[in-house]
Amino acid sequence: MPNTTKIAPRKRWLVYCLAAGFALIALGSLSFAIATALEEHDPFCISCHTAPEITYYNRAYYALDHPSEPIPDLSTLHYRAAQQAETAFKCIDCHRGDGSLPHRGTAIALGAYDVLIYLLGQDDPTIEKQRTKTGWLANAACATCHAESLLRLDGINNHFHTYLPQAREAFLRGNALSLGEGLRKARAESGAAEPIELETIAIQLFCTDCHQAHKAQPLAADKFFMDTTLRNTACVACHLVAKVGPQDVRELSAQ
Fold first, then answer.
1. Residue 113: other Cβ atoms inside 10 A
2. pLDDT tens, position by position, 55-89
3. What is the Cα–Cα distance from 158 to 155, expressed in whole angstroms?
4. How far is Cα of residue 216 from the mean position of the Cα atoms in its chain?
5. Among 11, 15, 20, 79, which residue carries the largest CB count within 10 Å?
6. Contact 64, 48 (CB under 8 A)
7. Distance from C-alpha of 130 to C-alpha of 176, rounded to nearest angstrom
8. Which residues, including other chains, have CB under 8 Å from residue 107's CB and lie 6 or more apart?
9. Measured between alpha carbons, how far is 137 from 121 in angstroms, rounded to an integer?
10. Ranges of each domain in the chain
11. Using an 8 Å Cβ cutoff, are 161 and 142 in contact?
């Protein structure tokens, strides 16, 4: 009789499980790679989003075709400025975080969640959204391009940036501190020579708490697209943690 070796049932299930595991890993890696490639194209991103995202997309391209008209929102300003500078710029550039693998994984997971919401018909049709699900991801994207603003020490003129944890993170990533004109002049007049250290207040604020990315306010372009009420609320939140400065929004200027 021929010598045949039978695989024990337990070993057979182990082989099946290992094969299934490798297949899932391969499928997941392929899906990640495909999604990463597709989200680099704005038309793909809005294909399964609805009213809000399509509105933002249309605003951006309308602004490109009508350069003399006021820019409606901050995201459009970024989009048009990049195109005018002949720099590639896509929606995902502000939604991928700092581009690191953990942030990329989070962005992909959010994309998958958005697809599910779309398929279930549970999307939020509100156009003027003022909050994001993962503000820390948006913070990382903002800080990647705006580290210079975060790290420009200029006393009261820029304290609302330099005291933020995002400024500390930008500094730890190797970005340099700089002195604003006002602080440089004051130090020269006083003869100050000691180095200036970066001070940080442990407050969780998002860039979008002050700068509204998708809220249409064409006349606010020269004010960095800030909603005064939201900005003042953010200011007081930071002052309360620091235990200095205005402790109530009524103590702040309405301008």
1. 11
2. 988 998 898 899 888 999 999 999 888 877 777 78
3. 6
4. 18
5. 79
6. no
7. 31
8. 39, 92, 95, 96, 97, 137
9. 25
10. 9-128, 142-251
11. no
Distance CA 142, CA 140 (A): 5
- Reported for 101-109, long-range contacts at CB under 8 A and 24+ positions apart, including other chains, are 103/137, 103/140, 104/36, 105/32, 106/134, 106/137, 107/39, 107/137, 108/32, 108/35, 108/36, 108/39
Q: Give the residue-averaged pLDDT of 25-42.
A: 73
> Which amino acid appears at position 88 of this protein?
A
Residue 100 tokens read as 């690191």
- Cα(195)–Cα(212) distance, integer angstroms: 35
Cα-based distances in Å from 217 to 26, 185, 213, 228: 46, 35, 10, 12
Reading the block at residue 10, the tokens are: 């337990």
In angstroms, the CA 97 to CA 137 distance is: 5
DSSP output for 117-172: HHHHT-----SS----TTHHHHHHHHHHH-HHHHTEE-GGGTHHHHTSHHHHHHHH
Do the beta carbons of residue 158 and residue 150 sit within 8 Å? Answer: no
- What does the alpha-carbon distance between residue 140 and residue 124 come to, in Å, rounded to a whole number? 24
Percent helix, strand, coil in the chain (nearest 5)? Answer: 60, 0, 40
Nearest Cα residue to 201 out of 245, 154, 254, 157:
245
Residues 194-220: tens digit of each pLDDT: 888 899 999 989 998 999 888 888 888
- Which residue carries 């700092």 as its tokens? 98
Q: Bridge partners of 178?
A: 152
Provide the pLDDT for residue 52: 84
Number of residues in the chain? 255
